[in-house]
Amino acid sequence: MQILMPEDPVFMTRFLEMEEPLLHSLYYLHLGHLPRNQAKTIRRAYEGWGDIQAAMPKFLNWHTPTAFELTVPRRESEGYRLHSPEGEQLISLYVVEVSIESISCLTACFTLLEEAETELGGPLAGALEEIREPRERDLVDNFRRVLQALQIPAPRALLASLRDAAPAGPVQEVTLDAAQHAEYAGYGDQFCHAVSSGDSFMYTMHRSLYL
Hints:
Blueprint: E1 2-6, H1 9-30, H2 36-55, E2 81-83, E3 89-90, E4 93-97, H3 100-117, H4 123-132, H5 139-150, H6 156-162, E5 173-175, H7 178-196, H8 200-207
Parallel strand pairs: 2-5
Antiparallel strand pairs: 1-4, 2-3
Helix pairs in contact: 1-2, 1-4, 1-5, 2-3, 3-5, 5-7, 7-8
């Protein structure tokens, strides 16, 4: 299936943190201590996460350590430039092909981790506690937010307008019409709500990327 991936440092910070420290630590440090069915679910999720990352434009994989303290739009994209009907530059969105299986593997893993957090004891609950201990954020909640963002349906008119945009396509400049821009605004609202709701300051800063 095709999804839209924004050139968004807040999302990418959260997406990359799914791998490190969460999935990476579970896979390399704790997998051998987990029941076989749990280990299989985590292994498949790690592979699914890797498949999604590999499908993204490579320059989206930069990590911004201060993204949660100060979010500023990147106006110089390595892909293409996206404009509103009035000519204002917008944050670029990229059409990315991901498999339903990869999303399903991540969904199954999130369900497993969420259930483990409610357990009183158990090897997976203990592993999550060990991984989370030095961190400031809830890593399972971060997983949930990223998964929700990845599952936002791509608006049809907007998707069609961006299929030929660089880096996958030859088009370097895209100007949205009024209907496409309305879809862009709605998509941005959903995306920011999935990733940053619950923190009014962070949500406001994140939402400013799409204005």
